[in-house]
Design brief:
The complex is a heterodimer of chains A (124) and B (100). With 124 residues, chain A is mainly α. Chain A is 55% helix and 6% strand. In chain A, helix 1 runs parallel beside helix 3 and helix 2 packs across helix 3. Chain B contains 3 helices and 3 strands; from the N terminus they run ααβββα. Chain B is globular. Classes of the chains: A mainly alpha (124), B mainly alpha (100).
Chain lengths: 124, 100
């Protein structure tokens, strides 16, 4: 079971955030184009950083804790999945806060900000 | 470049991206900070678990050696960059009218 260590953590994150989509209805997975574009802007950069870091020896992986599928660039498949799971979970969390608190995140159409006209609502 | 240096660059680049390049200004918003604190709490748990299970090993010369639990402090700089950039781009694409 040790080989599922990393995968289990990723599964945990996906499962724990799923109620945000299904129950709180934040519509992140549903907005698939927007999510895909977001991932395109983030994933390649961080995968490249990871490949570089492994090449420079900053860190390494205990492959016995992974399912053993290593991708070009010497990254375990779970590491690449990490770069899919974490951004999605982050966006789910941001949208959940928006839905729960009704605070603006900055993509509201002009004139539509909650908290009254002329006030940048939601600033700490 | 060490992991420390790279992650500090990433943090700076993220801040510049948010405040000056894309001007999403998430770092000024309560919604962002609330969401980030929640994600950070989960990161503390999951990162600690993975590191203590030995999934990652770090070159001592590439990090400062300061740890939060078992995880190098650099991981939290790295995490800030990944998490914040994800949110920044999501907001930016929405601003451009993509599935707002």
């Amino acid at each position: 079971m040790r080989e599922f260590t990393y995968a289990a953590m990723l599964g945990f994150v996906v499962l724990v955030t799923l109620p945000l989509e299904l129950l709180l209805r934040v519509r992140v997975y549903r907005r698939v184009r927007r999510l895909a574009l977001t991932m395109l802007c983030v994933v390649p950069l961080f995968v490249a950083w990871d490949v570089l870091a492994v090449r420079l020896g900053h860190w390494s992986f205990d492959l016995s804790r992974t399912v053993g599928l290593v991708l070009p660039g010497a990254l375990p498949v779970e590491e690449v999945l990490f770069f899919l799971v974490v951004p999605v979970a982050s966006v789910l969390t941001l949208e959940a806060v928006r839905v729960a608190r009704r605070w603006p995140v900055g993509d509201e159409p002009p004139g539509d900000e909650p908290g009254g006209a002329g006030r940048d609502g939601g600033e700490p | 470049m060490t992991h420390t240096a790279l992650s500090l660059v990433a943090v700076a680049a993220t801040i510049v991206l948010d405040l000056f390049v894309l001007r999403t200004r998430l770092l000024t918003r309560a919604a962002y900070w609330t969401a980030y604190v929640i994600v950070l709490a989960f990161q503390l748990v999951t990162n600690e678990w993975l590191t203590s299970q030995g999934v990652f090993r770090y070159d001592p010369d590439a990090i400062l050696g300061w740890r939060i639990g078992n995880a190098p402090v650099e991981d939290f700089l790295y995490g800030f960059a990944l998490v914040t950039q994800s949110m920044i781009w999501w907001v930016w694409w929405g601003r451009r009218g993509v599935e707002r």
